[in-house]
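U., I forgot to send this yesterday:
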Amino acid sequence: MKTEPCYFKIIFLIFLILQTILFISILFVPHLPLINVFEYTSIILSLIFSLFVFLKKKNVFTLLIFIALIFTAVADTFLVFLNSSLNETTQTIAMISFSLCQLTYFLVIWKVTTSQRERFINLVIRTIFFLALEVTAICILGSSYNFLIFVSLFYFSQLVTNIIFAFIHIKMNPFLAIGLLLFIGCDIFIGLSTLCDILALSQTHFLYIFAHLPFNFAWFFYLPSQVLLSSSGLFFKRKLLISKNSL
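Result:
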């Protein structure tokens, strides 16, 4: 048993080295062929590592992180690996999967929250924020509003609320809070690009220029977020409400 920590440290080190190589390749190798394969590989590596963490820790927290990363991998199968056949249907499936991912992170935060008052506030904030986004979108977009937008705003409302409450408990698990924050950094750049298309902005508009800078900002935030989230189970600083022996 004493050799297990050393064995796992080696796995963790290999994981970090591989992700660093992929990170550098994706961001700094010009005209990288099959870049979507590199990107998708980084997601699958994070999923596999989260499985290792769960098998090592065997608790509810690491199980939920693993499930969240399964939903992430499903979404990125459509958005990244099969991006050449991307359409509104596959985008909708991907956003539903990302929404389930954020609901799983919500369960993580729910599990570590012992205050019933905080749990109630959590539910109220995420519900009000979700409804406010949907009503605003309906008023602005009118007939252009569709189910994809509905699901995307639901996902965004859950992510933002998760970030708020993860930072409330940042001392308990900084990797979770920072990982979720980087997650939204990726979404901001993707969202700006989508907004430019929806509003049909000219290429000289400052938002279009910002959204199409010659650097992959989305993956600059996204890959580190997945590394942190998949590793977060190793750095949980409080006993779970359900012990690992219950699994």
